[in-house]
Amino acid sequence: MKSLLLVAHGSRRESSNDAVKQLVTKLRHQLAGSGFDEITHAFLELTTPSIEDGVSILVDAGSIDIVVMPYFLAPGIHVVDDLPELIDVARTTYPSVNFTVTPHLGEVDGMVSLILQSAGATA
Question: Which Pfam families does the record match to this protein (predicted)?
């Protein structure tokens, strides 16, 4: 089973955390044909579920291949240092699970077009 773990920073503002949860709900409704069987979210800090919890949820559901997507626009310390360290711990905890970390969202192909398209739609 292949799953997607969307990792966000986490916020003291519950509405910000709720926005991530709502995005995952929307994504879950479009998983058919995506190559993913399941999706969940996790936060690096300030709220739950933690990355450890998110990974555990997916493994308990039967995931053997987990793609981790950093929901960050820039390659700050969380993307460059913290997330890789936490995924290394997950690899040790679950040696039979394959973990892949994608580029952070700001580095994804198509982001420039999306920004211009979105800005143009509101102008």
Answer: CbiX
How many Cβ atoms are within 10 Å of 43's Cβ, its own excluded? 22
Q: What total number of domains does the chain contain?
A: 1
Contact 102, 70 (CB under 8 A): yes
| Burial of 7 from C-beta contacts in 10 A (0-12 / 13-18 / 19+) | buried
- CATH number of the domain within which 113 lies: 3.40.50.1400
Range of the domain at 81: 2-122
List residues bridging with 3 in a β-sheet: 38, 66
Q: CB under 8 Å to 42, separation ≥6 — which residues?
A: 5, 6, 7, 8, 49, 50, 51, 53, 54, 55
